[in-house]
Amino acid sequence: MKGVLTYIHRDFVKWIRYRVGLVSALVLPAAWLLFVGLALPVQFTGNYLDFITPGILVMTILTTGISSGSLLMFDKILGYLNKFLAMPVPRESILVSKILFITVRGIIQTTIILIIAVLIGATILNPAQYGLTYLILFLFGVFISAFSTTVALYLDDHDSFAAFTAMVTMPLFFTSSALMPYDVMPGWLRAIARVNPLSFAIDAIREVGTGTIPVLSITMLALFAAVVVVISGHVFRKVTV
Amino acid sequence: MSAIQTDDLTKNFGSLCAVDGLTLEVNREIFGLLGPNGSGKTTTVLMLTTLLSQTKGSAGICGHDTVREPDRVRSCISYVPQDMAVDTNLTGRENVLIFARLYGVPNPKDRVDELLAVMGLSDRADDLAKTYSGGMRRRLELAEALVHEPEVIFLDEPTLGLDVGARKTIWDHIHALNRKGMTIFVTTHYMDEADQFCDRVGIIDHGKIAALGRPSELKARLMKDVITVVVDGDYSPIQIEGTLLIGRSGDEISFTAENGREALPVLADALSRAGNRVRAMSLREPSLDDVFLQSVGRQEEAQGFEEWRYRMMLRGRA
Q1: The domain made up of B4-217 is a member of CATH 3.90.1150.10
Q2: For residue B301, what pLDDT is reported?
Q3: Which carries the bigger pLDDT value, residue B155 or residue B15?
């Protein structure tokens, strides 16, 4: 545990000092919120900002999470990983620290987005609802960061990983329920959106907004996250021994 | 109990045998592992530092088996790879503090101060590591490697890419550590450094030890003088009594002779008669380079070009 915290601290300080990355990760979701959430003339829902905010929150976790899978890859190709692996600290703590760091970082960024959303007119929820929202975002964050870390360990070079994230992010976002409800989607899109893991998280947060507790969605997300973490651990052991 | 002991240590990658039955004992000394690229140096170090498991044989560090008790081994070693992996956006102090925390050292802050002072980095301790020179980064890595007072340190090419002064400083530190009883296992390309600073060297080629001993002993195995000949065009081999061909490196051909001054004209004559166009000849004492050439032969560029390394270099990382 001490190892995990030290590794997280290291990544955290590096992140804070890398100010461009800090800002750039917020620009895209903030722009969506402002330009699409406020400006798009939609008829299917009353407060479109309330509708789109869960989608943008999950998108923030997605974009910041998916690219930072390369954190572990960079440690590997720059030689840090071998130093860490030659230490008596449990080896898995490196992987666990990356997944947690990326998730927590995503949560911090979604908090900023959430504040912007409220400032420009999104409905304020009660504390329990925010708690559940964070739980959902956390589970989704673990899912995404473990997934992207696993892919980064497989791909092993920076350019192909960048290509992978570019290829995955936008299609995942557009084929989810982020921008429109299922009943206004064309049939083919609805079929994809129903199985898109992003939709699970987005729909769950929307349910929280209406006052219900989405037990099934949360269980499913926890299950997804657990499966990907186990796979990730397996790949990590394979790559490091 | 030896600091490092290997018995028939072997590593195969598919059909390629990277390390072939290495049996070695290293104890409280500065041991240099020399060899051309791809000869198995790094593979050996990776196995000894528990980063790679062997195909056959065994290795023990301070009496602990690297496969059965990896955590025990990891507690008594430090490994400094050649990549110069320091976090450039952290200060020198922060870099070392991470290691002190990871090793669970008591009073990590005091320990870090102490080590930064030993490595002569105190006055720059709170500057970001990206402002450090290559030599300072290496010293910072040494400070990191020393936080838990390891018994054995593995250094992979510790002076690669450093200027002459910085190399000297690094070797001075290595010597100081050795005097305190630490075993130092170094891989290097620089024969002159190995000759000057290592107590013993092992020359490894195709995964096998080709020569092992004190640099002076190894040099003594050659005859007293070395004659190096530069020829234009192709070299037609010759045989003369009293001289022995060491090997060839580029357009330089080296011979060893018991009495170089007398062998010189004989050699020149024989070379011309065999149809060689001799451009230059020189006479000198044997160096570890000659031992290397004799044991390993001509050094070839075996390693592939690593693009990311090149790019990191452009960004000033390495």
Answers
A1: no
A2: 46
A3: B155
Of A13, A83, A157, the CB nearest to B90: A13
Residue B219 to residues A128, B193, B289, B290, Cα–Cα distance (Å) = 78, 15, 9, 8
Residues of A in contact with B78 (CB under 8 A): 86
Mean pLDDT of A50-62: 91
Q: Choose the closest CB to B75 out of A84, A88, A158.
A: A88
Predicted confidence (pLDDT) per residue in A138-190, tens digit: 999 999 999 999 998 888 788 889 899 988 998 999 999 988 889 889 999 99
Contact A48, A37 (CB under 8 A): yes
User: Which segments of B147-240 does DSSP mark as H helices, in order?
Assistant: 164-179, 191-197, 215-221
B147: closest chain A residue by CA: A87
Distance CA B58, CA B168 (A): 35
Q: Which of B41, B33, B40 is nearest to B17 (CA)?
A: B40
Question: Which of B84, B89, B104 is facing A18, going by the closest CB pair?
Answer: B89
Dump pLDDT digits (tens) for B135-145.
999 999 999 99
Nearest partner of A146 among A106, A112, A110, judged by Cα:
A106
Cβ under 8 Å to B: A residues 153-182: 157-158
Judged by a CB distance cut-off of 8 A, whether residue A86 touches chain B is yes
B101 interface with A at CB cutoff 8 Å: yes
